[in-house]
Amino acid sequence: MDKLRMQTANKADENFRKLAAMFPNAVTETINENGEVVRAIDKDVLMQEIACTVLDGNEERYQFTWPDKKKSVLLANAPINKTLRPCREESVDFDTTENLYIEGDNLEVLKLLQETYLGKIKMIYIDPPYNTGNDFVYEDDFAQSTDEYLANSGQYDEDGNRMVQNTESNGRFHTDWLNMIYPRLRISKDLLADNGVILVSINAYESENMKKICNEIFGANNFVCRFGWETKKAAQGMTTANMVVDNQESIYAYAKNISNFKFRGLDRNEENGFSNPDNDPRGLWKRQYLQRLGQGLPVRTIKDPKTGNVFSFETPYTQEKLDRWIAEGRIIFPSDPSKYPARKEFLNEYENKQQLVTSLGLYATKATTEKLYDIFDGKKVFTNPKPDTLLRFLIQQCLFDDEIVLDYFSGSATTAHAVMQLNAEDKGHRKFIMVQLPEATEEKSEAHKAGYKTICEIGKERIRRAGRKIKEDSPLTTQDLDTGFRVLKCDTSNMKEVYYNPAEYEASLFSHLEDNIKEDRTPEDLLFQVMLDLGVLLSGKIEETTIAGKKVFNVEDNYLIACFDSNVTEETIKAIAKQKPYYFVMRDSSMANDSVATNFDQIFATYSPDTVRKVL
């Protein structure tokens, strides 16, 4: 049996292994600043192997950089000893839902998700802090060494905050914001499916920097477009120093692989000019005028069979085709002979959808704010939520049935609300993963007075209430709609600290190491850390059964079976082996006696030799 790693991967190690596999002759060793022999890549050998120009030192080149950029790259690659702990009491339909709501620092959460959801996310939408001089940014401490940061990662300041205000007087005004967003976007790329897309909302303050970062991480060739959406209709009653009111925000769209991605396009329906005012049995139609002026086209003459009015006009259509359309009842004749006839163009004659334009029009936050008022019984629990209509549009354009959208600055959970509403409208099965820091609400705010102490509490309650309302509004068509979500909370590892640091063992510690699991952790806590480590989706179906008196978890129909009880006997092991799981996991100290430990491998060799066995 092998021990599970129980920590996130070190991306720098992975990158080194890839380089070493491609260029083994470039692998060498050197002495670091501590006098230790460490692995290294010989740059000179690598330059010879890749046979192209490699820039070194301070040579001029096109690049985008800022103070601490190298540290932000290291932070994106560095591993963490964290886990996600399930919280059934705050979840809805925990056992059946495929949606996730995760509380925690989104950088830590992204690292925990990066292996399990590698290449599985079709759409990422984020609305990060805008850096206006008053907004907050995540306080990632780059003054510390990587080891110090990882040791302190997840801790809060004396006021319980994980975010700090980034004022314009701060000498690191842009630097802090760039260092915050860069490692999160780096991991986002790994999570995206090969046909996936990330959409980033941003205002004018960091718009250019955001585009440069995305060009670097996703590649300028994978830039899809910049959408501009109107946040307000006009500037009536508003006064600015320079007589300009900015009523637009940007949404940058970048594909993981531009050759594999495209938006779905617009359906040609009433919103695109199609209607059926005369109840034509052939369905929706719109007017297509026949006249073309100033092009030197032939003049055709047609006659209205009902009124006898004659119309002559320049047109590209032949007389034969015009006469056929009249016979088919496709021509709309005006009652005024001085005007020109048109042709009915039917929706069902179009094979392709209508292309999008980058100007999205008005998606004001006011309507969404009022909707939240109604959902929360008239209380103003959140200011300036993203319009749910905007998110529904974007999700509809990016996600087909049964795909996943991730929002790791989820705020009031507008994205989750939009997914549920859209699924209700078209019977889809799209799934959401919301990630939000449990940022405290201001004590004087209506949200705090209403009992919502953190942003997460608002987001979770919105999903609960919105889900109920959607089902109440359409009870017959939403019976199978998934309005649930599993709540998971980012926490320290389930394993005791010394479990990862054998070099620090002392004789006095041995009596405390009979069990390497922290005392306050439940079997379900262990199960979810195992799922993360083995790459099992956190929304996977979990069935809890009892075998020979021991609690056993069966995940995704025998893909993973786990038992974390103590004193596990051969009877339990044999019954599990007979189910032939792909993975079986148990605690190293769980076996009832030495006989069970001795016979363990033989039991699986007899009943399920292909099962991968792991221990904690």
Account of the protein in words:
- This protein has 616 residues and is an alpha/beta fold.
- Helix content is 29%, strand content 21%.
- The chain has 16 helices and 25 strands.
- A ten-stranded mixed β-sheet has the order 4-20-5-19-18-6-9-11-10-17, with helices on both faces.
- Helix 16 (594-607) links the parallel strand 24 and strand 25.
- Helix 4 packs parallel to helix 6 and helix 11 runs parallel beside helix 13 (455-473).
- The protein is globular, with a radius of gyration of 30 Å.
- Mean pLDDT is 84; it is low at 133-137, 140-162 and 507-513.
Concise account of the structure shown:
This protein is α/β, with parallel strands linked by helices and 616 residues long. 29% of the residues lie in helices and 21% in strands.
Identify the notable features of this structure and list them briefly.
616 residues, six-stranded mixed beta sheet, alpha/beta, ten-stranded mixed beta sheet
Give the SSE layout.
Layout (H helix, E strand, L loop, with lengths): L1 E2 L7 H12 L4 E5 L5 E5 L1 H8 L18 H9 L4 E5 L13 E4 L2 H8 L7 E6 L9 E3 L7 H7 L10 E3 L7 H19 E11 L4 H12 L4 E8 L17 E8 L29 E5 L9 E5 L6 E5 L4 H9 L3 E2 L9 E5 L12 E4 L2 H11 L12 H11 L5 E4 L6 H13 L4 E6 L9 H4 L5 H19 L12 E7 L30 H12 L7 E6 L2 E6 L4 E4 L6 H9 L4 E4 L7 H14 L4 E4 L1
Parallel strand pairs: 1-25, 5-19, 5-20, 6-9, 6-18, 10-17, 18-19, 23-24, 24-25
Antiparallel strand pairs: 2-3, 4-20, 7-8, 9-11, 10-11, 12-16, 13-14, 15-16, 21-22, 22-23
Helix pairs in contact: 3-6, 4-6, 6-7, 10-11, 11-13, 15-16
